[in-house]
């Protein structure tokens, strides 16, 4: 991966050191944020359709955002945990090609980092509940994010440094598959950013081409060369991704989500959603939403 292509920033949501029991048992959780665990005692399991990973002392674990995972604690488990929200200028996740549960051996410094993170950010734990049904709602996530604004500049910068050091532990090529280096032309990159911030509007190839000062045919060809998709197909994919996020983190109705993501009708939204995900919106929300 080209280090100059690194565009992700991370916001702290939650961090704590907790002792869990048999009640820590949740199935098929899909979160809009990253989960990072450092186990100090006990054992448990993280699993999904493709993996079954043992939670054990002395290891560090990462579950990237929108990665399905079930959590099991048969007896007792003591762990440090960290929940972080990712943002990127081009809306591409750092782990877009690595949506899987990742386990790496812990270093002594990892424990030091977690302890320091808790010193800098006290009372950032899930005091009310460990159940994702309670804390994954969008207003709750926003409330946790706002706590970052109360940090001093030095504490904020140090917190960011610790988060990046912990994330870096999972970027070794033994665990992480880098994306091929692809330098996107400035005009296409600007178009991608415009699309991401205007999904709720009526986007057309002609409009995007005009902003790039190119003909529609030429713009469409260059766009596909750099993204793998024609502009309209790319827009629809990003609208569906945004809809998936809103289904998980908000109480908006499907009609409201369709409007918010730029679809002209609920019927058209439902048809496109099923085409991309293989499920109708109502079924997807029922199976994956944890609110």
From TrEMBL:
Ranges for domain HTH araC/xylS-type: 189-287
SUPFAM superfamilies per UniProt: Homeodomain-like
A Pfam family this chain is assigned to: HTH_18
InterPro entries the record matches: Homeodomain-like_sf, HTH_AraC, HTH_AraC-typ_CS, Tscrpt_reg_AraC-type_HTH
Superkingdom, natural source: Bacteria
Protein keywords: DNA-binding, Transcription, Transcription regulation
Gene source species: Runella slithyformis (strain ATCC 29530 / DSM 19594 / LMG 11500 / NCIMB 11436 / LSU 4)
Protein name: Transcriptional regulator, AraC family
Keyword Phosphoprotein assigned: no
GO molecular function, one term: sequence-specific DNA binding
